[in-house]
Amino acid sequence: MLRLSPEEHAQIAAVSHQASREGEAAPLPTGIDGRLAAALGRAGIDSLYSHQARAFHLAERGENVIVTTASASGKSLCFNLPVLNRLASDARARALYIYPTKALAQDQARKLQDLGLPFARPGIYDGDTPADQRPRIRRQASIIMTNPDMLHLGILPNRKGWQDFFLNLAYVVIDEAHTYRGVFGSHVANVLRRLRRICDAHGGGPRFLMTSATIANPVQLATTLTGLDFQLVDGNGAPAGERQIVFWNPPLLDEALGVRRSSLAEAADLFAGLLSRGVRTIVFTRTRKGTELVYKYATRQLEASSSGAAGRIAPYRGGYTPAQRREIEQGLFSGKLLGVVSTSALELGIDVGGIDAVLSVAFPGTVASLRQQWGRAGRGARPSLAVFIAGQDALDQFFMEHPEQLLERDVEAAILDCHNEQIFAGHLGAAAYEAPLEDSDRRFFGPEMDAAAAALLAAGRLRRQGERLVWASPEHPAAAISLRSSSSDSFTIVVEDTGAVLGQVEAERAFIFVHPVAVYLHMGETYQVRSLDIGGRVALVRRRLTDYYTQPKKETSIEIDERLMTRRACGVELSFGRVQATEQVVAYQRKSLSENQVLETVELELPEQSFPTEGLWFTVSEDMAGAVEAPLLAGGLHAAEHGLIALLPLLAMCDRWDIGGLSTEFHWQAGGPSIFLYDGHPGGIGITRTGFGRFEELVADSLELISSCRCVAGCPSCIQSPKCGNLNEPLSKQAALELLGMMAAAGDGSGEQQDDREDTRS
After folding, report:
1. How, if at all, do strands 65-68 and 207-212 pair?
2. Domain 12-17+240-407 adopts which CATH fold?
3. CATH fold of 25-233
4. What 8-state DSSP symbol labels residue 99?
C-alpha cells in the first residue's frame, strides 16, 4: 500500500488509518427475471451485497426506499435491480432517473446499455440532448435520465406530451439525494411534489428509490423531499480496502500573520509526485480556476521530468463541451488517463475505475462531501490514500490542529424548507399552470397551500374557475423560478460584449456580489461589473484578468420580528425567530491577489436592501461584558461572531456564505451587547434553527478554533473572515477568547426550550 511518511514530509500534520473490511454477500433474489440474472452474470455479478439485497426486497414489497452507504458500495444496483425487474415484467412500465450532474447520467446510461437488455432502454433528456432527438427519447426510452432543472422547466410544464409516461411511471430514482439541501433542496422538494401530483392526475403513482452519501438524517431528508414515508437501508455489505488518511498543512510563510503557502501549489507538487510513481490520482478543488491552476502547475513539473505522465492527465470541470467531458470520463474508466484534476463534478457516484489516491484541496464544505471524495479511491478491496490539503480558511486550520474533530465527527444533517414563503408560492403557481389547483391537492402541498394560494389569488396570479384555481397569466411561471435562488426578484448577469447570460443573483444579495466595478468570479473565470441597472435588474460584466479582487463594505442592521423559541444556554438567554435583515453596501476595497494588501477604498451610493429571514441571537450579560476591557468589547463580539459563523457549516450542510451575522455593543430590542446569526437567504432555510439546537457545541468548537491558532492577534485561520462586511474591523482575539471562554464554562445549556412566540416589533 502506498504511504506518505511524516518523516519525509514536514507538511503532514496528522496521519490516520482505516482498516480493511470484509464484505457481506447475499444470493441473487429468487424472484428476479431470468434475462436480468443472465445479464448480471455476464457482467460478473453472481451475488449481491447484503444492503443491495435488502433494498431489492423492500422495493419489491412496494416501499419507498432510501439507501445511505459509503462511496463505492454499489448503491446503483440498489435501484437498478428493482427497476429493471419491473421493466422486464411490464412492457409499458417506465422509470425516471434524476441526477444532480450530467456526468452521473452518462455513466449510468453506459452501464445500463452494457447489460444488453431489450427492455432497458435508457435515454438522457437534459440540456445537452439535441432538440430533434427529444421526441424519440420521450416515446421510446423506458428509463428517462434527467436533472431537476429539466424536470422543472422542460417536462412538467409540457405534461401533455408526457401523458403516457406519467401514467406508466413505476419508479422515480433520485441519486445522490444529499445534494438536495438548502435553497436548491427546498426547490427540488416542490418540484417532486408537482411531479407526484401530475402523475396522480394521469392515474399513475410511482414509488421512489433514493441513494445518498452517509448523512445524519436520511429518512427525514427523503420524506421532506417527497412528502412520503420511506424505509432506510444503511448497513454496508460491501468490502473496503485499507486507507491511509493524511492531513497536509502547507508551510507557514509568515508565522505572525498566519500566511501559508498556496494549497493549490502544494496539491500540484504532491499530484506530480504521485503520478511520477505511477499512482492513479484524482485532485478535487473547489473552483474551476483552482482546477486549471493545479493542472497547469502539475503539467509543468511533469514535462520537466522523464516520467511520461504529462500526457496522461486532464482537468475536468463545468464549461467543457459534452464531447470533451465524455472523452475524459472514458479515459478515466479505461485507464488511459493516469490522473485528473476536478471540481466537485467527479465527487459523486460516477465510476472512475481503479483510482489509488485522492487529494482534497481545502475542506469542501461538509464532512459528507469530504468522505464522498475520499471514496472515489480504493473501490472493492483495493488499498488507497486520501489526503486533505488545508487552505488558509479557519475551518481548514481547525481540522489541522484537531484532526479527530474531522475523523470522529458525525456527518451533517441535510436541511431544507419546502414551505419557505419565498420558494413555495412560486411552485404553487407553476403547479396551477400544469393543472388547476383543487382542495385535494393539500395531500401533496400540505395545509400551507391555503395561505399561499390566497396570496397568489390576491395578487392576480391565480383566478377562480368554479371550485378550482387556475393560472391567470399566459406566461410560463416555471421559467421565472431559479432552483438555485430563494427569491423571485433577481439580477441577471450578462456579458457585455456577447450578451451571454452568466446567471442570476438574488436581488437581496446583488449589491454584495455585483456592485459597480466589482470583480465577479463565475466558475473560476474573472469578470468585472461594468454597469448595474437597478431598475432593469441587469448587471453588465466584461471578462477581465486582474491582479486584485474587490471586497464590499456593508452596514447591517437586524430587527427582531417574532421570537419563536428561547432557552438558557452557555450562560446567555438564547433566542430563535423571524428577523428582518437590512444591508447597505457603502464602499468596496481593491485588494492585491499576491499580498492581500488594500490598494484603495472607494465609496458607493447604493440603496438599502431588506429581506425577512430566520436567525438566532443572544445578549452578553453585564458580568461577561464587564470582564472584558471596554475598548476591546466590540472587537471581541465581532471576532466571536466570525468564529461562530466559521463553524456553523459543520452542524448544518451549508456554506459560510449562506450565513449572515451582526455584532453590536447595544441592540435596541435585545437591550445590550448582542450577537446575531441569520440565514442569508430570504425566508430562511433552517441553518440557524440548527445552530439554535446545537448552540453549546457551536460555542465549544468556536472557542477551540480561536484558542488553538498560533497567531498573535488574529488571522485568516481563526477570526478574520473573507466575507466580513466591516472589512474585519474591529477584531480582538483576546476579547473573543474571554467571551467564548466564559460562555463555554457557564454550563451545558440544560435549561428547557420554550415555544416563546412573541411579536417584538413595538
Report:
1. parallel
2. Rossmann fold (3.40.50)
3. Rossmann fold (3.40.50)
4. -
The answer to whether 527 touches 544, Cβ cutoff 8 Å, is yes
Is pLDDT at 530 greater than 50 in this prediction? yes
Q: How far is CA 507 from CA 146, 382, 475, 489, 492, in A?
A: 29, 49, 22, 6, 9
Cβ neighbours, 10 Å, residue 686: 22
Q: Where on the phi/psi map is residue 429: left (φ > 0), alpha (ψ -120 to 50), or beta?
A: alpha
**Three-state DSSP state, 584:** strand
Predicted confidence at residue 319, as pLDDT, reads 60
**Full 3-state SS string of 367-424:** HHHHHHHHCCCCCCCCCEEEEEECCCCHHHHHHHHCHHHHHCCCCCECCCCCCCHHHH
DSSP string, 450-496: HHHHHHHHHTTSEEEETTEEEE-SSS-GGGG--TT-S-S-EEEEEET
Q: Which residues of 604-646 form beta strands (DSSP E)?
A: 609-619
Of 471, 477, 485, which Cα lies nearest the Cα of 420? 485
Q: Which residues pair with 494 in a beta bridge?
A: 501, 540
Q: Judge whether 676 and 751 are in contact, CB under 8 Å.
A: no
433/476 Cα distance (integer angstroms): 7
142-180 pLDDT tens trace: 999 999 999 999 999 998 899 999 999 999 999 999 989
Q: Which residue has the higher pLDDT, 460 or 290?
A: 460
> Dihedral angle at the C-alpha atoms of 625, 627, 630, 635, nearest 10 degrees?
-70
pLDDT tens digits for range 560-601 = 999 999 999 999 999 999 999 999 999 999 887 656 678 899
In 620-725, DSSP assigns E strands to 659-667, 672-679
Residue 464 CA to residue 470 CA, distance in Å, equals 6
Phi-psi region of 683 (alpha: psi -120 to 50; beta: other; left: phi over 0): left
